[in-house]
Amino acid sequence: MARKSGMLLALVLMVAGSVVATTGAANAVAVEQVCVGTWAVTYDPPITNTPQVVRGNLTGVFPTCTNLLAPSGSYGQVFTDTVSCATLLTAGAASRTYTWSNPLAAPTTFAYNWTVSDVAGQAVITNTGLITGGTFAGASAEQVAVLVTPDVLQCAGTGIASLTGPTTLTVFRP
Fold first, then answer.
1. 26 CB contacts (<8 Å, ≥6 apart)?
2. Residue-wise pLDDT tens for the chain (174 aa)?
3. What is the CA radius of gyration of the chain?
């Protein structure tokens, strides 16, 4: 299990790092914040092989961030979507607010679009957008999160109520 988690974290960091690597001198940006952590999604009712409307609850924890003003953070978000074990989340748009451990750092609102892709059998969710309020207002950001492939037997039976995986948030300042 530790090896699989390590591979997933490496995958998240590789995908997030590719954004920085593709930025050329003409579009120079500075990385203002990088947070590494975990996220979880719970589904009600549990997801199965049959697509159905579910209420989802996302929670994320970033115990390690690079900006000293906001050294760690967390978020929560509720959504409704039609999903199954084959489609853990559909693409769309939303916003979420990150709360930082330092009370001097204002909660940061992130308005984003997300895509879902399959990378090595894992669902990779990429959120890209703008920070519209709070400490990092005016910056752009990307959050990449990975969800492990659901257990086939559980999907065929009682369903899966929750999934978890690694996530990385990167805030860019032009």
1. none
2. 444 444 444 444 444 444 444 444 456 789 999 999 999 999 999 999 999 999 999 999 999 999 999 999 999 999 999 999 988 888 899 999 999 999 999 999 999 999 999 888 889 999 999 999 999 999 999 999 999 888 889 999 999 999 999 999 999 998
3. 16
Q: Classify each residue of 138-168 as buried b or exposed e, where b means 16 or more C-beta atoms within 10 Å of its C-beta.
A: ebbbbbbbbbbebeeeebeeebbeebbbbbb
Report the alpha-carbon distance of residue 26 to residue 24 in Å, rounded.
5
Enter the pTM of the model: 0.83
3-state SS, one letter per residue, for 62-81 = EEEECCCCCCCEEEEEEEEE
For residues 84-96, one letter each, b for 16 or more C-beta atoms within 10 angstroms of the residue's C-beta and e for the rest, the string is bbeebbeeeeeeb
- The tokens describing 156, both together, are 């065929």
Do the strands 30-47 and 160-173 form a parallel or antiparallel pair, or are they unpaired? antiparallel
Rounded to whole angstroms, what are the CA distances from 137 to 66, 93, 97, 107, 132?
Answer: 17, 18, 12, 10, 5
How many residues would you count in the chain?
174
Question: What's the token pair of residue 106?
Answer: 């204002």
